[in-house]
Specification:
Blueprint: H1 2-6, E1 11-15, H2 23-37, E2 42-50, E3 56-64, H3 70-84
Antiparallel strand pairs: 1-3, 2-3
């Protein structure tokens, strides 16, 4: 929480590592933490990145609702995830 409060334009993007096949368990844990600690100050957007072998990697963006660039960042994140699936 301090990370975002110190700088309202801060964002987090994370990809759940999949080398051991536990990426969905990691995603569930991050989702649980987000639900537990979010006081409706933040927005989380979830997507999947897909590699050439059709493996899916959960990726998420967390952004403060106070971020002055929220709409632009959201659009760019969605666009990047869609471009990855082509």
């Amino acid at each position: 929480m301090d990370f975002y409060f110190k700088k309202s334009s801060a964002i987090s993007v994370y990809i759940c590592e999949s080398a051991d096949g536990k990426e969905l368990a990691r995603k569930r844990k991050f989702d649980q933490w987000f639900q537990e600690y979010n006081d409706d100050t933040f927005v989380k957007v979830d997507k999947n990145l897909i590699d050439k072998d059709n493996n899916k990697f959960p990726v998420s963006l967390i952004i403060s609702k106070l971020n002055p660039y929220e709409a632009q960042i959201f659009k760019a994140f969605v666009r990047l995830s869609l471009n990855n699936q082509k």
